[in-house]
Amino acid sequence: MRVYWNMAIYEMKYALRYRANIFFNTMSEMVAFFAFFLLWRTIFSINGTGWGYTFREMATYYLISNFFFHHVPVCWNEFSWFVREGIMSNFLTRPLNLYYLYYSRTFGAKWAYMTSTVIFIASMYLIFGNFFVLPHNIAFILLAILFWIGGGIIYYSASFWVEALSFWFEEVSGYSNVLFVIKSFLSGYLIPLNIVPFKKFLIYQPFNYVAYFPTRVFMGKVSYHEILYHFVAMLLWILTFWGTSLYVLKKGLVKYSAPGG
Q1: Is the pLDDT assigned to residue 82 strictly greater than 70?
Q2: Which pLDDT value is given to residue 257?
Q3: Distance from C-alpha of 226 to C-alpha of 257, rounded to nearest angstrom
Q4: Which pLDDT value is given to residue 48?
Q5: How far apart (Å, rounded) are the C-alpha atoms in residues 233 and 26?
Q6: Could you tell me which of 78, 99, 76, 101 has the C-alpha nearest to residue 253?
Q7: Which residue has the higher pLDDT, 44 or 183?
Q8: Which residue, 8, 59, 205, 248, is the most exposed by fewest CB within 10 angstroms?
Q9: Nearest alpha-carbon partner for 151 in 79, 215, 102, 229
C-alpha cells in the first residue's frame, strides 16, 4: 500500500512541475462552463423555470458536475503503449499490481489539477454568487465526495478494461474515444439525467455516479432513502467492475507472457 501511496505523491509533484498545463487545462474548463452557462441562461429566459431546476440550480449543477466529470481517475493510454512496445515487462518484474499502480498514479496527477479547479470554482462563487446555490449541509457535501470517489473507481475500471484490450489488439485508442463519449452522456455531465428520455434507466446505470448523482447529493436534491439505495447499488457496480478488471488483467498477462505473445 505504501508503494502505491508514494506513486500517487510522485505523480502529483510531477504534474505540478508543469503549471502551464494545469493553468490552460483550467482555462479550457472555464470556457466550457461559460458556454453552457450562457446556453442554459438563454433556455431559461425562453421557457422560465422547468425540469425541476431553477436557473440558479442548473448553473450550480453544471459547475459541480463539471468538476466531478473532469477529475475522475482514468487509466492512461500509456498502458496500451507499454504493452505494444514490450515496456510493460519492466513492471512485471516488481511486486506491483498494474490495476492499483495506474489508479494511484492517475489519482495523484488528478490532485494537482483539482487544486486549480477548486480555486476556479471558489472564484465563480465569489464573483457570480447570485447565480449559484450554496450547499447548507456538510453531510451532503461529504456524501457527494464519497459517491464521486465510487464513480471514479467505476470509470477507472472501465477505462482499464479498454487499455487492457491491448493484450489482444494492436490499437485501442478508438475504443477509448467511444468510452469517453459514453461517459460524457451517461454521467449526466452535459444534461442532467432526470430531464432526458429513459431517465428511469439512465439514473441506475454505473456512470451515473461519475457526475450526476454526486452533484444531486451535493445540492441536497435527494432523500436519505435514495442515498442508501444508490450507495448499495454503487457498491455492487464497484465490485463488478473491480472484479472484472482484475480478471481481464490476469488473462491479459497470461497472453502477454506466453511464448511468441
Answers
A1: yes
A2: 61
A3: 46
A4: 65
A5: 32
A6: 99
A7: 183
A8: 205
A9: 215
Q: What is the DSSP string of 170-192?
A: S--HHHHHHHHHHHHHHTTSSS-
For 152, the grid coordinates are 471514479
**Is pLDDT at 156 greater than 80 in this prediction?**
yes
Count of domains in the chain?
1
Grid cell at residue 229:
439505495
Sign, Cα dihedral of 61, 66, 72, 77 = positive
- Beta carbons of 17 and 109 less than 8 angstroms apart: no
- Sign of the CA dihedral 172, 176, 179, 181? negative
Q: Which amino acid is located at 76 in the chain? A: W
How far is the C-alpha of 124 from the C-alpha of 63, rounded, in Å? 9
Question: pTM of the predicted model, to two decimals?
Answer: 0.87
| 107, 15 contact by CB (below 8 A) | no
Q: Which amino acid is at 167?
A: F
Q: Is 52 left (phi over 0), alpha (psi -120 to 50) or beta?
A: left
Q: Is the pLDDT of residue 261 over 50?
A: no
Domain that holds residue 103: 2-257
- Packed helices 19-47 and 55-70: angle between N→C axes, nearest 10 degrees: 150
Q: Decide which of 208 and 171 is more confident.
A: 208
Question: pLDDT digit string (tens) for 15-43?
Answer: 778 777 777 777 777 787 788 888 888 88
